């Protein structure tokens, strides 16, 4: 396997854009990535698209060539990857594998979701398709309620408190306020975060990520060719994907995600680094409890200590190891298929020192964690200066 | 003795639960409602279902009272 680098990146702002369709969002992100890598569409040898539910959200299937041809990328393999909220990460993992194996040199990985043309109740129903529709979802669960049940058990087993969850929301909103591309650019207070409208007890509105439209794209190339495209390549030091049960009731312990632990351990091994070396991270905060558990499963803190860790400010932008300086899914927004690629862009922006007002001082080694469903897929990527 | 073949007889302990206030389209009329993952007696695994009647918390004993469309409905056990 040869080393691979991110040599170009681009994303749209995230938000609710009634005038934009799926194709125009994906094309904007793709064109920005091509421009960033100074390559033409003709140079792209394969196209990978992360998209969770285009067929349900906008009624369009066969999305990879639908997007790639609109970008002027013609004739090459164009494939869509679906792994719920980890669709983007999964597309990236497979693109990386094919470049690392020497099958292709220059490829584009994009992620896109157009969600806001549906009502919230319909969005809940579409998202529910990422759970087990023969069991847990038939009982009336939503993704919020699955994570509410996870939070309840985490509180029961470890003493995690509602304040700990709220601290994650307050932190990520503060970060999102500094991100010009974030869906929600509004700081919130602890009092607001504690008093939000209940969605699924104990999770309230502020514990939940946003329903957003958006797209992101990266260009990958072998590290040795990176200088042809950019003065600031970002190396994929380690990447791994892992899987687990889709249904929550099949897991022995719902307060930990084995797929996150497995993908994390494999990525650390590939990168030759440990959890303690990671300087900052973008973690998959689809719900506040998910960021807390991810920080535990990735070894940033011991099991059960993720709540106090966030509450005490260690993961704040000025903390010891900032988490979600982009605002995370919570404030940046969560266009499902785009999220895994946007996380890579946000880590790369910090490493390239292009993160603007949210730039952090220690930024040479970062991690992105992209979770699918209630933990059935996880992709962990470790990125560094080249 | 509870038996797997007779789901109406299943009993167990609440492993986790939530009360849902924001529902998918098909359940909008039921809001608010409680769902739970129940560890079934007899070591036959866990199942996700609805809770009717009194609200339950982790550790509560529950008994299945009916099944609707493949979904078990539990009620807090009285003993």
Task: Please tag this protein with its features.
heterodimer, A: 386 residues, alpha/beta, Peroxisomal Thiolase, Chain A, domain 1, 9-stranded mixed β-sheet, 13 helices, 11 strands, globular, B: 79 residues, mainly beta, OB fold (Dihydrolipoamide Acetyltransferase, E2P), 5-stranded mixed β-barrel, disordered N terminus
Oligomer: heterodimer
Q: Whole-number average pLDDT of chain A?
A: 97
Number of domains of chain A: 2
Report the principal-axis shape of chain A.
globular
Strand order of the largest sheet of chain B: 1-2-3-5-4
* CATH architecture term of the largest domain in chain A: 3-Layer(aba) Sandwich
CATH topology grouping of chain B = OB fold (Dihydrolipoamide Acetyltransferase, E2P)
- Number of beta strands of chain B: 5
The secondary-structure element order of chain B is EEEEE
* Separation, N- and C-terminal Cα atoms of chain B: 16 Å
What is the overall silhouette of chain B? globular
Q: Gyration radius of chain B, to the nearest Å?
A: 12 Å
Number of helices of chain A: 13
Strands of chain A, count: 11
What structural class do the secondary elements of chain B suggest? mainly beta
Second-tier CATH architecture of chain B: Beta Barrel
Largest interface: A-B, 35 and 30 residues
Distance between the termini of chain A: 16 Å
Structural summary, described in words:
The complex is a heterodimer of chains A (386) and B (79). Chain A is an alpha/beta fold and 386 residues long. Chain A folds into two domains: 4-118 and 212-235, Thiolase/Chalcone synthase (Peroxisomal Thiolase, Chain A, domain 1, 3-Layer(aba) Sandwich); 131-209 and 237-385, 3-Layer(aba) Sandwich (Peroxisomal Thiolase, Chain A, domain 1), CATH 3.40.47.10. Chain A has helices spanning 22-37, 54-58, 63-70, 87-100, 120-128, 143-158, 162-176, 190-194, 258-271, 288-297, 306-311, 328-331, 336-351, and strands at residues 4-11, 46-50, 78-81, 107-113, 198-200, 203-204, 214-222, 234-243, 280-282, 365-372, 377-385. In chain A, the strands form two sheets. Chain A has a nine-stranded mixed sheet, with helices on both faces. In chain A, strand 5 (198-200) and strand 6 (203-204) form a beta hairpin. In chain A, helix 7 (162-176) crosses helix 10 (288-297). The longest helix of chain A is centred in the first third of the chain and has 16 residues, at 22-37. Chain A is globular, with a radius of gyration of 19 Å. Chain A starts with a strand and ends with a strand. In chain A, 63% of the residues are buried. The mean pLDDT of chain A is 97. Chain B is mainly beta and 79 residues long. Chain B is built from no helices and five strands. Chain B has strands spanning 11-20, 33-40, 46-52, 61-68, 71-76. In chain B, strands 1-2-3-5-4 form a five-stranded mixed β-barrel. Mean pLDDT of chain B is 91; it is low at 1-5. Classes of the chains: A alpha/beta (386), B mainly beta (79). Chains A and B meet through helix 5, helix 6 and strand 5 of A and strand 1, strand 2 and strand 3 of B.
